[in-house]
Structures are given as C-alpha cells and as structure tokens.
Amino acid sequence: MTPYQRLVLASRPRGEPTADNFRLETVEVPALQDGQLLVRNHYLSLDPYMRGRMSESKSYAASQALDETMIGGTAGEVVASRHPDFAVGDAVVGNGGWTEMTLSDGTGLRKVDTSRIPLSAYLGAVGMPGMTAWYGLNRILELKAGQTLCVSAASGAVGSAVGQLAKLQGVRAVGIAGGPEKCAYVVDELGFDACVDYKAGNLFADLKAAAPDGIDGIFENVAGEVFDAALAQTNAFARVALCGMIAGYNGEDIPLRSVRALLKNRITLRGFIVTEHLDCWPQGLAELGTLVADSKLKYRESVAEGLPAAPEAFIGLLKGRNFGKQLVKLI
After folding, report:
1. Domain 128-275, what fold?
2. Is the pTM of this model over 0.90?
3. Which Gene3D superfamilies match (predicted)?
C-alpha cells in the first residue's frame, strides 16, 4: 500500500492554537500482525475537548503527547484484517486520530450499519456529541414536560441534539447561538421555541424575554457571560449539566457574576464527561440511531476537505466558525 499522512502535535499552544502547533508527516503502512486490522479513515471528528488535551495542565484525561498522532474520533472502512471480529469492508468507528489510516487491535472500535445512517453521522448525532446530549438531558437534567431548558452553543453538534431531544419530551427549548443565521436555523430547522443571539449585545434582556417563565434546566457548553445570563434567569431547584467551557479553552479566566443564584435558587450543578458513562451508550446510541434513521433528529455538518485542512478547521471550531458538527473528509 502507498504511504499515508498523519498530523502530530508539534508544540503546545500558548493561548490560541495556531497551525504551527501541528506537523504533517508521511508514514509507511505497517505490516499486519495476527489480531490486527487496518482502517482507511473516511472522516475525522474535530471537537473542542481537543484543545484541553493539547495542554500539559492536569485534567480529566492525559495530555496529548508531543510528536504523536493527534487524538480524535474517526469513521472509516476496514481495508485489511487479521482480526477474527473484523472483515475487509466493515464500516467502523473509533478513535483513530488525525490520520488517514489507523492500525488497530480492535480495542475501542465498533462496527456500524450505514444502510440507513450515513457514516459521518456516527461521529455526530449518533456518536459522542449525540451521547453527550442524551446523557446530560436524561441523566442529569431530567426535566418534565412543560419546563424550560436553555442550551448554549445551540447550533453546534451537541447543543442542536439537546434541544431536539428535549422537544420530543415536551420540554420548552431556548437556545443561545452566535449570529442571526445560526439562530434562525435553531428555530426554523431544529424546532427550538426560541434562540437568542449573544452577539447582538442584549444577552440578559433577550434571554429573559425568550424564557418569560424562567429556566428550569441549563445545558452549558460555553460558560462565561452566556452561563451568567442563564443562571440569572433560573427558577428554584433548577439543574445544570456542565458539559463544556469553550470560553476558557485557551486558558482565559472565566468569571461568574451570577454565582449567588446557585444558592438562592438551590441549584444542582453537575459537570460530566460522557466517556465515563459507557454503560449508557448502548441504550443512548440505539435511541439516537432510530431517531436519525427516521429523520426525527436533524443535524448539520461543516466539512473540511483533506487532512492538511484539519488545523485551520480546528482553529475555526474554537472561534465558532463551524455550523453544526465539524468534520474533516479524508477520502
């Protein structure tokens, strides 16, 4: 087989990542040993959590090693196999990283059915982002029909799924997104009840108008002023599923002015990492897959072409330039 390309972490960013933090390398295809298989990756998933892994600071997972293939979810096809559980032609999803091909022993790799669900969706609505939405909504927020949910980054891969799943449960969904185009998509295409444009400069007032009966649950992806605004509108005994803090991924301080609301409204706040709850994945993925196959869960993808485009696409993701799930098409 011809050599393939991969991207490694060449240096740790100071503040915002740059393209210089990555290095493109050409690698020879290794010979397969018994129990191994080779995957040709078709899609690479880009996600905000990767920024945290690029740092050496202590976190919930080990830092990305320098001069090694950058971590990341992948979806592709088995092109060679000496593994009893995988055959050439199988569609698979795993964590192959920023690389065109992945040598695997099968650990963490799962076969997927692409007859009704596109392969790329297994990195989004029927993958880790979808499961993040499913877990936060069903295991932490546990809202009742008629209550109000506020979702930040509502047009993104996670936020868009949260709001739609909530609507299917009879919950009122209010999104927060950046720009009129994204807000229109959240309401007109995804079916949210309202969406507030945080870039319009009237976040507190606009969110209060969008949630006149207050907020009973917050699915938080951003933190900072967006989280502040939502906390200020909470009802008594509201719940918060803290999923991400995009506002602070480059090391910025994240002030919280509405902290008094945590006590005054007796709020339950829980941060979570969805990969720590793998016991829920079979149920969640089955439900998400059915909804996508039946066109009851919509999603949108931003697709960069070719592995060399991954660094700029990742930088754009952290700046909110993507619309929906950010992918890189590798083939």
Report:
1. Rossmann fold (3.40.50)
2. yes
3. Medium-chain alcohol dehydrogenases, catalytic domain, NAD(P)-binding Rossmann-like Domain
